[in-house]
Amino acid sequence: MGLRRFFRRRFWDEERARELEAYLEHETDENLARGMSAEEARYAARRKLGNPVRIREEIHLMNSAGILETLWQDVRYGLRQLAGDRGFTTVAVLTLGLGIGSVTVMYSVIHNVLLDPFPYAHSNRMVDVMVRDMDQPDSVFRGGLIPDEFLDFQEQSRAFEAVIGTNTEGMVLRTPERSEPVSVAWGTPGMFAFLGVGPLLGRTFGETDGQPGAPPVAVLSHEAWQRLFGGDASVVGRTIVLNEAPYSVIGVMPPRFTWHVADAWVPKPIERGAAPSSSSQRWFQAHLRPGASEEQAEAELQVIAERRAREHPQDYPKRFRIDVITVIDWVVGRFRGVLYTLFGAVGLLLLIACVNVANMLLARASVREREITIRAALGASRARIVRQLLVESALLALAGGVAGCAIAWGLLQALLQFLPRQGVAYEVEISLDRPVLLFSLGVSALASLVFGLMPALHGSRRDLVGGLKQGGRGIAAGFRQRGLRGGLVIGEVALSLVLLIAASLLVRSFVQMTRVDLGMDATGVLRFVVLFASNDPRTPAQQQQAVSRALERVAALPGVVAAAEATGLPTDGFRSDIEVPGHPSAERRRMRYQLCSQGYLRTFGVRLARGRDFTEDDVAGARRVALVNETLAATHFPGEDPIGRTIVVAGLRTVSDPVAEPVFEIVGVTRDARNGGLRGDPEPAAFLPSTTSGFGRRLIAAKMAADPRLSIEPVRRAVWSLDPGLALSQAQVLDEVLRERYYAQPRFSLIVLATFAAVGLLLVAVGVYGVMAYTVARQRQEIAVRMALGAGRGAVHALVLGTGGRLLATGIALGLLLGLAASRLIASQLWGTSPYDPLALGLAVAVILAIGLLACYVPAARAVRIDPVAALRLD
Amino acid sequence: MIFWSSLASVPKKGVTALEADLLQGTLDLLVLKALAPGPAHGHAIAHLIEKRSDEVLQVEHGSLYPALHRLEDRGWLASFWGTSENNRKARYYRLTPRGRRQLASQAGRWAEIVAAVNRVLRPASD
User: Fold this and answer.
1) Which residues of chain A does B74 touch, with a Cβ-Cβ cutoff of 8 Å?
2) Residue of A2, A55, A61 lying closest to B62 (CB–CB)
């Protein structure tokens, strides 16, 4: 009822006016009847009725929903106020925006990378199962399970709801003019139903496609569809040739579906008794039954595996453990720590932003004390004044929210450039996270409302006379407020120092990291992977010869400085046991090895310390010679000359093209390459002639004189003109590969944290400046009196800088304490740098001190320019 | 003599909540009672109350209108435009069924209060 009348107030007002008019007519009639004159009758009627305007006002008031009415007034007034104080408004809105924006972006990254990276159904319950050798806990003994093992796990366990098995195999996609290596995933027929993602084009496969005798089909990934078929929709229904066998393409998946990072998925059930191979061994991927834990599943599978190990001891290490790990943990790994650190940092930033805005609101409210007092004196109720100030704060928060959304969007675009590939699932698609945007909007709105309310309550409590008298310049005014503002500045300086310390530690650590000598020179090196189909009719030795021929062709190209073929980079290597004749050892000793051609050391810039490099004859003749690194020499031949001694690379006895007598004579010693990771010590390593065995995927590497990127297509064409059947992968520029592998994650933390620290500094500068400028404005008279009494410029400077300096010093002391506590948290990401590194700490303190004093200096300079006469005459 | 203006309007400052409630309720009761015999317009209601109270309740008649408005808002009265006895347009008010129930209960309550107050005011001779 009331609300209906609220919206029809005008109608009701007119209605009442007519009604009152009717009363007057009636009363006038009666008065006339009593014998009054016309004028007298009308006048008496009016007197009897009273003031019609007041009556109508009263009724009008009953009809208005009072709050709505005055709220709109408050909003208009607030907008005028904010527009009038443009500097304040801009800074406050930007501050809030930066806080909201950066928290939203960081959380969005965390949400998309850590919490919900996959487009697959029930991905939070999705686990991988693998066998680990307890003597080598860092590496996985077996991920792709043996077919019988897989089926035993699936049939005898109860912890899983649904199970699929996938494994990838490098295959050759053959077209008349070229051969492309592609990664094909063998999946159990229920794979797509399990993953719960529909196709972009055509259809996916199901149980019937996996039946024996069903026509072979393949589903393409979006990326492969674009790369190999130019995004041609007519590819669905076409036949492609993989490893010389035809498959008809039945569908294309959407971009985010990158299960096992395959180019194509092909159905194939797991058959009991099948020999282990890349198509029959499968990764065991399952949905945990709701309520079942990873530990339960591990315990259950352990029992099944122990039973199998008793029957097939050759399939298992002596001491092994079944590991059930969620897919998210498997992919994200250590990157989790980085992201959480950054989220903590950005939380600090939001806090600083809120503190800043609070501070600005406090400062502003006390400047406005007089305005508030006048309003109160004119009859505004306390509630009304509080509401007015709250509305202003809310408007500010709203504008900050809008700015926050814009900044979040911009930051996200910028951040995506630096996101490392490692630790981020291929499926990840980073978009702004709406709930968290709402959350940070809420936090900042709450902060500005609370701090908008504080001066409102304080201001409205003032007695009118005192307020008018002091009006915004009282020296003694609001000690409590001054204490609060000082506290906020101290807190802000402290928080920002924490960020700065973390950033400068990371900078130090990153610099250390880039100084690490990888033991190789990747400049200008291109890397191609050569792939042979599993059903390739050539023997491994013949395949090796095909690679050698291609290498000759590549080496002869113009611009090639050096070229080599090998099984991998100097920073990697197969692992093997090592035996040293004449130095028997009870314990098991490990080493790494690579097979390579002559020219390997030159191509990768690995320097020879002693002895000689491989010759063409060494490689062509498959001589049993070896180059070893300094670590191997120092470990196994301490104080001896290793040249001429022999080592046994035991692992070569069991590879697919085995070597019966893997005994090698050491002919040279190379410098160490970082084959134990950037942080680890180098491991003993040997390089053996590539002709020793035909096993392993080969790569061809070429060091170019000019920009290697330009040579990618010429090299591929040269190889295909020789042998169109040789599947040569897209080339990678080695520099980029290494940068991505070693530096992308630290660089990401560094850039993000440094940005946050810079924003934090900016906020501190604004905050300190705001408070000091405000203090000077309030102390104008005091300063004027002092100057009139003969205080010099120096004394005024000292007064202002002293006030600011005390706040800064307290904040820095507090920040150092917090920072020292917090830097332990990022210690895991530091490398070669102590979390208490004095240089980093000193730098952070110096920067914040400089910025803080600069922010104080401007108001100090202004204070000095105060003209005592003018200031004292003012009001 | 009591002036209606203090009965009719929104409570003024200095008037306690109880007093305001009591007085406002009283005017409401008077209006409801005046309409019990049948519909009437504002002018007639004002004069009716004045006459019935032997002119004790003097009024600025205008202050009756906010009360009418309020009662209509509560659904106790309904109004319509009609023609008065001397052939002028006037807004007529009548009791709604809810208004009639309200009259009964408020009249009863009033009687109780008056009786109670009287008992208190009577000299404590017995």
Assistant:
1) 1
2) A55
Chain A, nearest residue to B89 by Cα: A22
Please state the ipTM of this predicted complex. Answer: 0.80
Same domain? For A693 and A838 the reply is: no
Mutation target vs A (from B3, B63, B64, B69; most A CBs, 10 A cutoff) = B69
Closest CA to A506 of A846, A110, A825: A825
**pLDDT score recorded for residue B5:** 45
pTM of the model: 0.63
Tell me what pLDDT residue A275 has: 83
Distance of CA A253 to the CA centre of its chain: 26
Structural domain includes residue B103: yes
CB pairs under 8 A between A and B: 69
DSSP string spanning A752-770?
A: HHHHHHHHHHHHHHHHHHH
Residues contacting B122, CB < 8 A, separation 6+: none
Own/partner pairs for B52-59, CB < 8 Å, 24+ apart?
A: B56/B1, B56/B2, B57/B1, B57/B2, B57/B4, B57/B30, B58/B1, B58/B2, B58/B3, B58/B4, B59/B3, B59/B4, B59/B5
| CB atoms B60 and A22 under 8 Å | no
- Assess whether pLDDT exceeds 90 at residue A826: no
**Range(s) of the domain holding residue B43:** 2-121
Residue of chain A whose Cα is closest to the Cα of B43: A23
Helix ranges restricted to H, A368-433:
369-377, 382-416
CB contact under 8 A, A50 and B42: no
Number of structural domains (chain A) is 5
Angstrom CA distances, A55 to A17, A51, A62, B63, stand at: 9, 7, 11, 7
Instruction: Tell me how close the Cα of A21 comes to any Cα of chain B, in angstroms.
Output: 9
- Which residues on chain A are in Cβ contact (under 8 Å) with B73? 1-2, 5, 62
Side-chain-facing half-sphere of A695: CA atoms under 13 Å: 13
Statement to judge: residues A667 and A796 lie in one domain = no
Chain A residues in contact with chain B using a Cβ-Cβ cutoff of 8 Å? 1-2, 5, 15-16, 18-20, 22-23, 25-27, 29, 48-52, 54-55, 58-59, 61-62
B126 inside domain? no
Residue A187 has pLDDT above 80, yes or no: yes
